[in-house]
Amino acid sequence: MSTLTRPVPRQAHRVRFLDPESGSVIDDGLVLGFPGPASFTGEDVVELHCHGGPAILEALLAALATRPGLRPAEPGEFTRRAFLAGKIDLSQAEGIADLIEAESPAQLAQARRQADGELGRIHEAWRAECLDLLAGLTADIDFADEAIDPGLALHARDQCLILAARLGEELLDAGVALRVKEGYRIAVLGPPNTGKSSFINTLAKRPAVIVSEIPGTTRDVIEIRMRLGRHEVIFADSAGLRETEDEIEAEGVRRARQLACEADLRLWAVPATEPIDSLPEGFRTGDICLRTKSDLVAIPAITERHAISDEFRVSAKTGAGMAEFRMALIARVDAALGNRTHPALTNARQVTAVREASAALSRAADQLPEHVELAAEDLRGAANALGRIAGRMDVEEILGAVFSRFCIGK
Ligand SMILES: Nc1nc2c(ncn2[C@@H]2O[C@H](COP(=O)(O)OP(=O)(O)OP(=O)(O)O)[C@@H](O)[C@H]2O)c(=O)[nH]1
Ligand SMILES: [Mg+2]
């Protein structure tokens, strides 16, 4: 049997992996070669495809470890090498990490756009606009023996404002994109023993949290992740809200109140057996009222409605109303997170860079048309901040853009 020495580029070769010492067959598999610089990392790459069993992997890795210079890759090492070789930008690398972690279709679509470089391309274009404006202003400063052209400075000011506004929109949008990525947070709140934990278990279709007839069962905030339609949702169960002398329970109630403030949506549990005579403390417009334990009342209790537009009768015991509630909730989450088709900022690093760029552009606009030098400095800051999104810190480029405007051999 012949030995494969040089795989044909990008072609699968059927092979047998042999133990170099004993010569015994480890597995039957495929080998693919990707010569640089067209490979993912830019380097020569060989992929070994084998069956996924742990014993096979262990034997294959042990055999590879006997070869000089071979070692297992560090986490993210291939993506890192691709970035360092200039094959992908930093936001694409982050997109690849998000792709691997994506749990929901919406997370996958969002990560895909970022990994494909859409986000990077948008910021690159905005950065180029900053550099263009900077180049125009800098040329103006350098020829300042003549008076500075006020038309040019005013145009630059308008452009700075337009760009700052676009970045501002992107920052607003980032909140939604982060929710898509991290999960939409829904808090289940209400007095003790109203069936909050039972409701979450029924929705999750598993006994995720402890349920008992003793009021004050749940004390910690417990997060349960679930898929709802296209999105990942985090339900948070919490301690029943009441005044209590018990120190531990009181801490649970404090945490539950905090949760209420931070969640994207609040579900307030009120047993269907009780009339609602006032809105729960902390109830916000858009919150949902869950009339729990609906199996205990044959006819809906007469409720004074207040501002509660969304009210659902559910029974964790019989499952009644749960399917309708789930459908309504999917629609709610879809409406809140949208069906996004454009790339968005998806992590704190990107948000910080855009916030910085936006602030610098606003400052630049404030300086114009009078203080061209100061505005130029802020434009440089904005371009640098935008460049950081792609992982670029290139002074040469800025200089290049500036000096390309000098057409006289100065
Ligand atoms: N009949 C009926 N009983 C229910 C229903 N949901 C919960 N219960 C009962 O109500 C009691 C309290 O349920 P839990 O889910 O622990 O209530 P909780 O709101 O989480 O209570 P705390 O954690 O103490 O705040 C238990 O005995 C449940 O079996 C329901 O839909 N119908
Ligand atoms: Mg509970």
Describe the structure.
- By secondary structure, this protein is an alpha/beta fold.
- The protein has 3 domains: 13-65, 2-Layer Sandwich (Gyrase A, domain 2), CATH 3.30.1360; 101-180 and 345-403, Four Helix Bundle (Hemerythrin (Met), subunit A) (Up-down Bundle); 183-320, Rossmann fold.
- 46% of the residues lie in helices and 14% in strands.
- It contains 12 helices and 9 strands.
- It has helices at 54-65, 77-84, 90-101, 105-115, 118-142, 150-182, 196-204, 247-262, 322-337, 348-367, 372-389, 395-403; strands at 13-18, 25-34, 45-49, 184-189, 222-228, 231-237, 265-271, 288-292, 310-313.
- The strands form 2 sheets. The protein has a 6-stranded mixed sheet, sandwiched between helices. The protein has a 3-stranded antiparallel sheet with strand order 1-2-3.
- Helix 6 (150-182) packs antiparallel against helix 10.
- The model is unreliable at 401-410 (pLDDT under 50).
- Guanosine-5'-triphosphate binds next to helix 7.
Number of helical segments with 4 or more residues: 12
CATH class type of the largest domain: Mainly Alpha
Mean pLDDT: 88
User: What percentage of the residues does DSSP assign to strands (E)?
Assistant: 5-15%
Give the name of the CATH architecture of the largest domain: Up-down Bundle
Gyration radius, rounded: 30 Å
